[in-house]
């Protein structure tokens, strides 16, 4: 666990460095509020661990990890505007704190800083661009063509949440100069972890205490959002079962990778367990 905290500290240090360099001050204020308010940093941690699992060094993946965290944060800023959510990561959301216009500009600024970190590597640019296309399709689907079945929901979850998880792991493999098969296998692992993460999010929205969660609950039902619990009338326990199945498939995909660093691989295995059991 100490080594995992060290990796997170590397990511946080670089994230702060990137944020400190954002100009002008108005944009810096927005980016700082959205980015440094907290967060689990799951995606960038996946980037670093994926890199190490296949023989790379943590330092080689830090910029890509910070980049994917910035992309994720940009998407959260927009989500909160759409949902009118006033709370994010235990504090005020960007639009609630700054207003709609500055929040939109903050999202643009986050994406600009992110792509600056990917720009030196064409493979990284391609991976993130593809993930953002999937994310955009997922967001549009959620707004206008809401899924009505479990299968349609799973497609949405892969696009809206799984795509950025996939990109996070693939970026780590790319940083380690892994072969195509390894990039794909780590991507599948992370995509399934992301889907499990989203299903667990649905469950927490239905049953968790908002103060413990750090954001409002009951939002899916109130806004008629396509939660797995809402679409299928599953119980929370049954939905957790679906999350567990995705986590198990993620572990299977990880098992096909030639491992150079067993400790890093073990952390990825723990993550697949954590996303199903987390309470916030």
TrEMBL record:
PROSITE patterns: POLYPRENYL_SYNTHASE_1, POLYPRENYL_SYNTHASE_2. GO terms for biological process: isoprenoid biosynthetic process. The keyword Metal-binding applies. One of its GO terms (molecular function) is metal ion binding. Keywords: Isoprene biosynthesis, Magnesium, Metal-binding, Transferase. The keyword Secreted does not apply. It comes from the Archaea. Its cofactor is Mg(2+). CDD domains: Trans_IPPS_HT (cd00685). Belongs to the FPP/GGPP synthase family. This is Polyprenyl synthetase family protein.
């Amino acid at each position: 666990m100490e080594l995992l905290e060290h990796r997170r500290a590397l990511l946080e240090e670089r994230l702060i460095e990137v944020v400190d360099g954002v100009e002008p001050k108005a944009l810096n204020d927005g980016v700082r509020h959205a980015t440094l308010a907290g967060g689990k940093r799951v995606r960038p941690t996946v980037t670093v661990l994926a890199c190490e699992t296949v023989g790379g060094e943590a330092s080689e993946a830090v910029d890509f990890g910070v980049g994917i965290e910035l992309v994720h944060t940009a998407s959260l800023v927009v989500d909160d505007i759409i949902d009118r959510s006033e709370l994010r990561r235990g504090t005020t959301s960007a639009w609630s704190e700054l207003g709609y216009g500055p929040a939109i500009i903050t999202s643009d600024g986050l994406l600009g800083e992110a792509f600056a970190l990917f720009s030196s590597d064409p493979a990284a640019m391609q991976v993130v661009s593809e993930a953002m296309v999937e994310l955009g399709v997922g967001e549009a689907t959620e707004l206008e063509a809401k899924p009505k079945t479990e299968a349609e929901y799973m497609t949405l979850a892969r696009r809206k949440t799984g795509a950025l998880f996939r990109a996070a792991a693939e970026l780590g493999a790319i940083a380690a100069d892994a072969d195509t098969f390894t990039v794909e296998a780590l991507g599948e692992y992370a995509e399934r972890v992301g889907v499990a993460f989203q299903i667990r999010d649905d469950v927490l929205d239905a049953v968790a205490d908002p103060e413990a969660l750090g954001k409002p609950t009951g939002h899916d039902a109130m806004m008629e959002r396509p939660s797995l619990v809402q679409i299928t009338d599953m119980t929370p326990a049954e939905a957790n079962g679906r999350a567990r199945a995705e986590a198990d498939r993620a572990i299977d995909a990880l098992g096909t990778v030639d491992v150079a660093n067993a400790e890093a691989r073990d952390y990825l295995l723990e993550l697949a367990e954590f996303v199903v059991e987390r309470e916030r």
